[in-house]
Protein 1
Amino acid sequence: MPSLSSEDAANARRQLRRRRTQAFLFVVPLLVFILFAFVAPITTMLFRSVYNPTVAELVPETLTMLEDWEGETLPDPAVVTQMAIDMKRMAGNRTSGKFADEINRALPGMSSVIKSTARGLRRADDAELAANGAEMLLAENDRWAKPATWRAIRSAGQAYTSSYYLTAVDLEYDAEGEIVMRDTQIYKQLYTKTLKMALIITGLTMLLGYPLAFYMSQASPATANFLMVFVLLPFWTSLLVRTTAWIALLQAGGVVNSTLIWAGLINEPIELLYNEFSTILAMTHILLPFMVLPLYAVMRGIDASFMRAAISMGSNPIGAWYKIYLPMSLPGLSAGALLVFIISVGYYITPALVGGTDGQMISNIIAFHMQVSNNWELAAALGSLLLILILVLYWLFDRFVGTDNLKLG
C-alpha cells in the first residue's frame, strides 16, 4: 500500500487530536461532577479523620511549653500560668466552649471545669495573672492539679492523631501511651450489627426477588410489563412516605396489630416498631427493586429451551434449575446482592425513623456525631472505616465470585 505523504499524515494527526479533544470536552462535566461530588468529599473525610488543629490553634504557647513535660507530676508553674492567661483570652473571644468540648472528649468531665474556670478568670487583671496565674488557675478547680488533665490537653493538642480511629474500634491510649480497650464498647458492636442486618436484608431480597423475577421472565410481555409497573412503583413514591407508611402499619395501634387483635390471634399489641425487625422489614421493601431489576434483566436473556432440553433428557425440574438455570442467572443475582448489600450498609433515613434504639445502624451514629456532638473527626473516622470495610468486602466478592460477570441490565 502506498504510504501517506508528510502533509497527509500531519492532517490525519490533527484530525485525531481534534476528535480526542472533542471527546474529552464532552467528558469534562462528568469529571468535574465526580471530582466535587465524590473525590473531594471522600478526600476531606479521610483528612479530617486524622487532622484536628483546634486545640493547637487555641493554646499554642501552652502546648509548646508542655513538650518537655514528663507527664507524671504537675507541670512547671510557668506552664500553669500560661494556661491561665490562655483561659482569659479564650473567655474574651468566646472560644473557651470549643476548647472545653475538645478536652472533654479526651478526658470526660472537663467541659464544666474549663467553662467555669474561663468565667472565673475572665475579669482577672493581666498583671495579676502574669504574677500569680498558676495559683489562680489551681484555685478554680481541683482537677487542674491533676497530671491527667494536662496529659489530656497535650494529647488533644496534637494536630495529627490516630486517636479517632482507635475510638472508632473501641480502643484508646492510656496514661503510658499504650493502646488499651475502652471502658465502653459501642462501635464494634454497631459495625457487627450493621453487617448482620445488611446480610439479612440482602438474603430476604434474594428470597423474594428471585421467584418474582423468574415469573416475570417466563410470563407474557403484557403480564411482565404489568408486574414491572409494581416493581417500579416504589421509585415513584417518596422514600419518606414509604417509611412513614410502615410506621402507620407497625405501631401499637396500627393496621397490623389491630388486625391481629380483631382476629383473636393476640390479646395485646406486639412491639413491631422501633427495633431491628421494623428496620429489616422496611428496608427489605425499599431495596427489593434493586434486586429484581438486575435479575429480570439477566433472566429475560436466558433461552427457555435450555430448561426444556434438560428435562427432556431425564432431569427433574429442580435439578434442571439448579444445574442449568441458576448458574446462568448468577450474574444478575450477584449484581443485585452486591447492590442491595452496599446500599443497606450505609442506609440512614429508614433506620432513623423506624429503627429506634435497637434498629440503629452505624450510619445513624455517624450522623449523630456530625449533627449533635459536633465531633466531626470521629464521624470522619467512622465513615472512613465503613468505606474501607465496604472496599474489603467488594475485593473479597471480586476474588471469590468475580465482578467481571456482573450484569445490571
Protein 2
Amino acid sequence: MTTDPYAWIEQSLVTIQRADWYRSVQTLSDRPGATVVLAGREVINFASNDYLGLAGDERLIAAATKAIHELGTGSTGSRLLSGHRELHRELEMAIASLKQTEDAIVFSSGYLANLGAIASVVGKRDLILSDQYNHSSLKNGAVLSGAAIIEYPHCEVVALKTQLSQQRQNYRRCLIITDSVFSMDGDLCPLPALLKMSAEFNCMLLVDEAHATGVIGKTGAGCVEHFGCTGKPLIQIGTLSKALGSLGGYVAGSANLIDFLRNRAPTWIYTTGLSPADTAAALTAIQVVQQEPQRRIQLWRNVDYLKNLMQQQLPHLKLLPTESPILCFQLPSPSDALRVGQHLKDAGIFAPAIRPPTVPTSRIRISVMATHTTEQIEKLVAVLRNTD
C-alpha cells in the first residue's frame, strides 16, 4: 500500500501528456485586441471571445477606472449582506432592456449563473434534458441540481421528443438546457423547435446566450432575438466576459424568476458581488452595443470574408457548420491539432488547438473579431494554405 496518498497525481499527469491532452497557460502581456503580445512576440489574435473588440476599448477602461475611484476595488460582501451597489441594479436593468425581459440578475461569472440557476429551478424529483455538446457549466449545473439527467444527441429534436414522450410523466418538473451558440463548433441550437417542444411537454427551457450576447440578432440581443423568440417563456443565461469585454454572468427572464433566484440561487446568495469596475465596464459595453451597430455589422463582414476565403482556397479543410464568429475545422488527432496550432503560432497567428476531453474530436478553433483587418484575415488563410 502506498504511503503517499497524492502519488496518483503524477501518474495521471503522465497519462494526460501521453494522450496529447496536456494543457498549459500562455502568457499575454498587453491589452486585448486583434493583435496581442504572446510570450514576448506580437501575433494576430484569433483565439479571443472579445468579438466586438471592447475589452480594450477606452470607454470601458474609463468607466471601470471611474467606478474604482468612486466605489473602490471590491464589493466587499455578498449583495444580500453588504455588497449591493446601485450600479449593480443599473446593469441588471440594462441587461433586461437589451434582452426585452421583465428583469435580470447579475452573477460573478457566467459559470456561477448556470450552476445557480439550474440547481435552483430543478431538484431530485425532476428531469433535465441536456444537449450533448453543452458547455461544462450547463452540465455541471445539471449534476449539482440532483435531477435525473438525459443527454440527447446534438441538436436532434426528434430524439429529444422521443425522450420526453417516454420520460416526462415520471417527473415533477422538467428542464431542457442548451447553449444557443455552441462554443466549440459555432452552430446554433434549434431554438424555435425547442420552445415548441417545451410547450408541448410542459417543460421549462434554459438557453445559454454566452457567445450570442452582443453578437447575434438585430440589436445584439442574442439568438432569442435572431429566431424571433423574444418574449417567450425562457430562462436566458449569458456572460459579460465575451462580446461585452468585462467579467460576470446574468440570468434574464420574468420578474418572478429573478425574484426567486435572489432567494434561492446559492451561487448568487453566498458569493461576493461583482466588482464595481467589472460592473461599470459591462454597463458601458451594453450602451456601445446598442449605440454602435456598425461594430456588429463589421464583425459579420469579417466572418463572411474569412468563411468565403477558406471555402475557396482551403477546400481540404472542412469547416464545421457555423452561424457565428466561431469557425472550426477538425483534425485526425490531438497531435495533429497541436502541430497545426504550433505552425500557426510560428507564423505569427494565435489560434488554439482544441482537444479531448473538451471536444470529442480535435480541431483548430478560430474566433473572428470586428477589429480584424482584411490583411490579418488573408494572412491567416495564407498560413493555413501552407500547412502540411
Protein 3
Amino acid sequence: MVGAGFAGVGCVKRLERRLTEREAQITLLSPFSYQLYLPLLPQVAAGVLTPQSVALSLRRSQKHRTRIVPGGAVGVDTAAKAVVLRTISGEFDVEPYDHLVLAPGSVTRTFDIPGLADHARGMKTLAEAVYVRDHVIAQLDLADASDDEAERAARLQFVVVGGGYAGTETAACLQLLTHNAVKRYPRLDPALIKWHLVDIAPKLMPELGDKLGAAAMKILTERGIQVSLGVSVASVDDEAVTLTDGRVLPCRTLIWTAGVAASPLIGTVGAETVRGRLVATPELSVPGLDGVWALGDAAAVPDLAKGEDGAICPPTAQHAMRQGRALADNLVATLRGESLRPYTHKDLGLVVDLGGMDGVSKPLGVELHGPAAQAVARGYHWAALRTNVAKTRVMTNWLLNAVAGDDYVRTGFLASKAGTLRDFEYTDAYLTPEQTRLHTGAFRGAVG
C-alpha cells in the first residue's frame, strides 16, 4: 500500500479485518505515521485546532498488524513488481509486491508563473499549515515593530489564490485570525489588514451552485475580504504580487491553493492517465498491469453514480474513504477467487467551514448557510474522524476556542527558511524510469 491518506488507510484497515495473517502480509509505505484529516487544515493554520488533533496516529491501535515503512515511494517498476522508496533517513530501499495499491494522493497544482516556486506558500500538508500560521503572525509582529508605513502596509496585505474549498476556507479562517489578533497590537491600524481571494474561475466554489456561492461571497465581503474572480497571478516576488488585470499588491504573503494534481509518482508507473490521474477500472484495478490497483486523488475512477460517459470521481475525501473499502473487498475477492464489484457512490453533498459561526453547506442537496451550515459542516467533519481520540481532541479544541478565544503564539517553525511549496511537498524527489530500474534490477531478474 502506497499512501496513508483517506483511501490508503481505509483500505488497510478493512484488509486487516478481512484477511488472516496466513492469507496476506500488508506493508504500508508512508513518510509519516499518521493519517492527516486534510479538510481541517485551515483551522490548524488559524489556531482553532492543534496540529496533533488532525494527525491520526497509525500506530495507536494495538491490533494492527500492518508493517509501516517510514518513507515515500519515488518510483514504480511494474515489470519487476517492486517499488522504490526513499526512507525518512534519505536512503533508498526497494519493496517487492504481489499486489500494489496506489493511493499516493495529490500535490498542489502549480503553473509556470514567474516567482511562484520561490515565494508561494501552500496549504496541503500539516507542516505547511503550521508554517503558514507562524508566517502570518510574524507579519503582524514585524509590522508592529516597523516605523516604515510602506513596509507595514505590505506586511499586512495577504493574497490567497484559489476560489475552491481549500482557498475559500483558508482565506476565511486566517482573516478571522488576523481580525482578532490585531486587537493585541495597539500600534497597528486594523484598516491596514487586507485579505484578497483570487481565482481565475468566474464563480466562487461553483460546485455549490449559484445561491450558496453568492451566500459565501456575501460572508467573505462583509468581513472585508476582497474577492477577485476571473483573475490570476501574473508574477510574484518578495515584495509584491502582480495580478493579470494589472494590479500590483504590495505584500509578503502569497498562499497558493489553486487546485491539486496527482502525485508525481503516477508518472513513474508507465500506464495510461487522464489529466495526470492513473486510469482505473470501476473495480479499481489498473488495466494492463497485473496486481496493480489505484484509488483516491491519484486515480481516475469512473463515477458510475452520475451515469455519464467519461465521468470520473472528484478528488474528495468522501470518495477516497469509500474507494478504500471497496478496493479492499475486491482485493480480498481476488485472493479468494471470488467475483469483483464495481465502485459506485452517490455524492452526499458538500460542506464549507468559514470559521466563527459562518458556513455554507449542501447536505443531500439541501442548501444551508450561516450558523446552521456551520453546524452541519463541523458535525460532518467530527463524525468523519476515524478515532474517538481524534474526535475528543477536535471537540475539546472547538469548545476551548469558543470559550477562551484565539492564542497568537508564534512557534518559530522554520523561521530561517522560505517555506515554499517545494520545501514541504517534495515534488522533485521522484525518480525517472531509468533511475528506478537501477534500484530494481535484481527484482526484474527474479520476476523474469
